[in-house]
Amino acid sequence: MKQTLLALVIISLTLSCHRNTETAEKPVISVSILPQLYFVEQMAGDLAEVNVMIPPGASPATYEPTISQLSKLEQSETYLKIGYVGFELSWMDKISSVNPGMKIFDLSRGIDLIIEEEEGANHHGQSQTGTEPHVWLSVKNARIIARNTHDALQLMFPDHREELADRLEKFSVSLDSLQLAISSKLEGLEGRSFMIYHPALTYFARDYHLHQYSLEIEGKSPSPTHLRQMTDLGLSQNISTILVQDQFDRKNAEVLAREIGAKIVRFDPLDPHWMEQMLYIAEQFNSSMR
């Protein structure tokens, strides 16, 4: 952390004195997570270069930016924050200090946020708000994220307003199709409860009237006591599906799956192919919860 903070100061001072005299081919938009790359590309096409701060395999709760990423921020005209991931809560003030002229937009603006009941700091670094951060894993929320992305792009590219409006309309139509496909796959499920290692599908569960039970507690691996409780819950509710994110170890989930006869489903909430991942999640529920 100290090395990164020092890098912030050095980059800010150095780059303010030695501006790159070459004009970039495209303006740079920085975002926090890989799914945002998908949204920006759908909304902007090839109008901008997208700089993703959190690389594949890294945790949005704990990641610290590298020196090269901080340098890239200095070139960014705009930062699109997803809302409440730990990385943003910890780093946005420092990020904005690298490039004070960079415009920052909150893509979660207008979303019906889920506020967690626990008080105090948790695994997302949410000591103040307690807001469930996985807002992008919801088709309903995606419409708002797309609209907010579009509005930011309209300010960046005033000469492309018609093109941007057309892109938003086309994306909205594709979201309509996705919503219908997911709803169809989840209609008539025998069970509507599932377990998950890290509670990333809270908004998805709300949208489709599912019940999510998390193995992880406050960012920590489940204790033997909690695993016993989850075993009893799984047997009593006949839970047949346990989801595990690619970023997490699956050993505890495998033990639990053997105890209750459930299927392990791997998925990636940070998949840059957002629409494919959303459909995949629904397909897994469809096949394992019938």
Please give a quick description of this structure.
It is built from 10 helices and 8 strands.
Structure commentary:
This protein is α/β, with parallel strands linked by helices and 290 residues long. It has 2 domains: 2-179, 3-Layer(aba) Sandwich (Rossmann fold); 188-288, 3-Layer(aba) Sandwich (Rossmann fold), CATH 3.40.50. Helix content is 47%, strand content 12%. It has 10 helices and 8 strands. The chain has helices at residues 2-17, 34-44, 67-74, 86-98, 139-156, 161-186, 202-207, 224-237, 251-260, 274-288, and strands at 28-31, 49-52, 76-81, 103-106, 193-196, 211-214, 241-245, 263-267. It has a 4-stranded parallel sheet, sandwiched between helices. α9 (251-260) links the parallel β7 and β8 (263-267). α1 packs parallel to α3 (67-74), α2 packs across α5 and α8 runs parallel beside α9 (251-260). The longest helix is centred in the middle third of the chain and has 26 residues, at 161-186. Mean pLDDT is 89; it is low at 5-24 and 119-129.
